[in-house]
Design goal:
By secondary structure, this protein is mainly alpha-helical. The protein contains seven helices and no strands. 55% of the residues lie in helices and 0% in strands. The radius of gyration is 18 Å and the shape is extended. The termini are far apart.
Amino acid sequence: MGVDPPFGAVRPELCAVMTDFADFRAIAFGWRPLSGLSSPREVVRQFTPNWFAATMGTGILALALAQFPSTPALRAAGEGLWIFNIGLFSLFTVLYAARWIFYFDGARRIFGHSVGVDVLRLHPHGPGDDP
């Protein structure tokens, strides 16, 4: 394990992967989404709480779809989206907890970042609660 770069810093070794257009296209279209990482542990080290915004948006869409009881297809889509959202929220919670366990110093640095600290409030709203 090396020293973590400052919060929000661009890592040159990750940018070097994007120099070849074929690699860019493969990553952009999801064929090799993790190929730019030096190891699978980088997923945990690079995980930030702003991913909880995705669960917040997915959750509110699921709640909105459930408001149409007269249309069974929309209600079923809302219920399916809600279950998917619970899975996303659980995955993100495990990843963020792992970051605090394995990369404590890197995770703690978010408190010193003027913008990064604002995304910490997204976690409690992740399941779809509207603040």
